[in-house]
Amino acid sequence: MGNRRIQDSAKIISIRLLRRGRDSREEIARICGFSTRTLRRTVQRYHTTGSVAKAAAIGRGRPRLLHSKDALYLLKLARHAPCTFLDEYQKLLHRYRHLSVHISTVHRTFERAGLNKPISLIVLLNTPPITLLHWTRLPKDDRTYARLWGRAPVGQRAEAYQPFVRKRRFTGIAALALDVGIIASRVIEGSSDRDTFIDFLRNDLLPEMNPYPAPRSVILLDNARIHHSDEIRELVESFGCRIEYLPPYSPHYNPIEQVFSVIKSYLRRIGIEAYPTSAAYYELYRSFQIITPEMTWGFFRHSGLI
């Protein structure tokens, strides 16, 4: 008859006919529409389990790589440090549990345990507007290191101790060029002003540029007040370069926004303990170096410039 599904109701009828005792097994199998071998298995299953239905399959699918103790270890880590990144959990599993698993395995373990990723409770960063396409500034203080997301049971907020005061404030000034990366940078303590901007143009950025219309010959600025002055325009034109301004309220045209998003993610990942306070300048200069020429193509493409 081939491999086909037989309804449990037909099997129950066969058991009742067999109990009545008026028909042979061959006749019962013919009436119910299956073979005598199926009838024999049905009777055996009924005597063993009290039911004609097949038992539900147990343990289907691929065995899980993380056993219960390994999953419990991850959950304890999440309660102790809810803002830990998935790849950091992965490294801890490899180091202390000698397990090499993919990040998706760690993520699914948290999902099965009912841990989502809500916003952290203790601190929210104030992200200042980042100004420039080819040049911009990045304010940084102790709160920049605070991780914004953590894991907690569904319906609860993740609680974590994060820096809540600014302490020393630094400003990173940088210029971005396509297929090059950061071509000029400077780190100062405090906030930048027009004099700082002009000095950066004169001594750091413009010497790295070329006369128009060569590559890297146009500086694109936003409409901040410190960017508008005859002195700035005359300085840029003295190097044979041009200066253009972004339309108002158009950060989506600014690829440097994405650059500093990457840098802030890098600073949150390494944490405030990675560098001593005395190395704050080096820390920002080092973060500018993570921007590669290959990454700039994605930044410019996402901003619709290429």
From TrEMBL:
It comes from the Eukaryota. One of its GO terms (molecular function) is nucleic acid binding. Pfam families: DDE_3 (PF13358), HTH_23 (PF13384). InterPro entries: Homeodomain-like_sf, RNaseH-like_sf, RNaseH_sf, Tc1-like_DDE_dom. Residues 147-269 form the Tc1-like transposase DDE domain. PANTHER family: TRANSPOSASE. This is Transposase domain-containing protein. It comes from Mycena sanguinolenta.
